[in-house]
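#struct-help
A.M.: can someone run this one for me? Single chain, 271 residues.
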Amino acid sequence: MSELNIRIAIMDDIEDIAAISRTTWDGDDYLEKKARRWIRDSSLYAGELDGKVVGTFRLSAMPEGVLWMEALRVHKDYRNCGYGRQLADASFGTGKKIIGSGKAKCMEFSTYFKNAESIHISVSQGFRVVNRFMLMNREGIDSTALNERIEPSDADFMFLRGHIPCGWKYPRLCRGGIEWALQRCDTWRRGDVLFLRERNSNETTPLRGAEDYPDSFLDGAEAAASSAGDSHSCIVLHESGIKVIERAFERGYDTWEPVEGCNVLIFRYNI
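D.P.: on it. Structure tokens below:
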């Protein structure tokens, strides 16, 4: 196995990065859409082999001194060759240097529960699970109901547990994390339930009221999806939201694959 040349990505890498993205998650991957912005802010790293970028990872600053790790990708033609491990080790090593410089306090990332290789590597590096969420989908929705858009208070977020779901990024539940989330999410009311919807995805998560009124939350999530032109509703629920999870299953929501427990894990590394 050859050693990758790992460096900060540049605009000349765009075509190679797009090819990686198109071979990830059956082409339903966000890397290609975000690569240019991430290259401009020097947060995206490239793994180069014989002049070709075959892998990536990203490190970015989040509130509360968190260094967020994401976008660890390997082109499908180069998988199972050890390059994923090289990229993971480089991401971890770079992150430790940033923490050592005082620019961050810890590293965190989210991953799907079936991402066995990533989980194995991360645990061996000292990462530990600190939070769990359930990602669920329902196809074929067609709601004509309307929600009320609102400006939430910090108190509305206090029903969350530890992190705020925003797509596949989960800022800490703190003042800075709330501000970060509100720059990327809209807040809606349906009856006595408040919920967030991330603007660049179709994911919705409850703020308060969903445990008492799970149907109101699910109705609101489906109405928000329909009004955005989506034919399916995607919800993200904390593992403690048992009533909402059970009601979602009853209403036809499901997970991508059978899971006991939760399918989205948040990992953290503290030096």
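A.M.: thanks! The mean pLDDT is 95.
D.P.: also worth noting: Helices lie at 14-22, 31-40, 83-100, 116-125, 175-182, 214-227, 242-250.
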